């Protein structure tokens, strides 16, 4: 498949690129800082660009089978008011329409589920601005008639684990953390197998 990755320099995006190449896909990483991608691979194309600019995104997107988006606010930005993700979703959707690409996988967050455990309540409060942006981002994606999948993972950690549990519209039992790589595995499985179309999916690592 020809896959177009947004947020390819980030923790999740790096895993998406790595796993997609390992699975034999052609990958385009559309990034604002190409120097952050040290990897060289004949199946990897790095394009410099701003995901907020449709006129740059649309031509770059042409000919791809799917877009995988793992954009996120960098560092302290997550604690400030932002519309970055909602705006990027809007430009991505507009560019996909222009380019005739209809498959989209986006990373959101488990904090959007109405979990009542104290840790969810605390993190929802701490990350309230980011969560507002994620909700708006999801609304933009859900309003399309694309074949979309929204992944809502819990806290992410750097391990090589690729196993995940998934549940439509809910957080799998006992979900607290999982690996960035397992989120990448889930999104790639979805686009390869054509599963979870037009679904919000809660994710978790392997059961302990
Ligand atoms: N990390 C977690 O524990 C966790 C848990 C649950 C859900 N999530 C969700 O997963 C998503 C990805 O998280 P992550 O930890 O992989 O993110 P990350 O490592 O911070 O990567 C964020 C990506 O977005 C890009 N980006 C940020 N601001 C940008 C801007 N203004 N213009 C263009 N690109 C921009 C970054 O590019 P640069 O490299 O150029 O900055 C980077 O590629 C987030 O939306 C988050 O809500 C994360």
Task: Give a structural overview.
By secondary structure, the protein is α/β, with parallel strands linked by helices. The protein has a single domain, classed as NAD(P)-binding Rossmann-like Domain (Rossmann fold), CATH 3.40.50. The protein is 36% helix and 24% strand. The chain contains 6 helices and 10 strands, in the order βαββαβαβααββββαβ. The chain has helices at residues 11-22, 54-61, 84-99, 118-126, 128-142, 180-193, and strands at 2-6, 26-31, 44-48, 66-69, 103-107, 147-152, 155-157, 164-168, 177-179, 199-205. It has an 8-stranded mixed sheet, sandwiched between helices. A two-stranded parallel sheet has the order 7-9. Helix 1 (11-22) links the parallel strand 1 and strand 2 (26-31). The radius of gyration is 16 Å and the shape is globular. The termini are far apart. Bound molecules: NADP nicotinamide-adenine-dinucleotide phosphate. It comes from Sorangium atrum. Residues 7-193 form the NAD(P)-binding domain. Pfam families: NAD_binding_10.
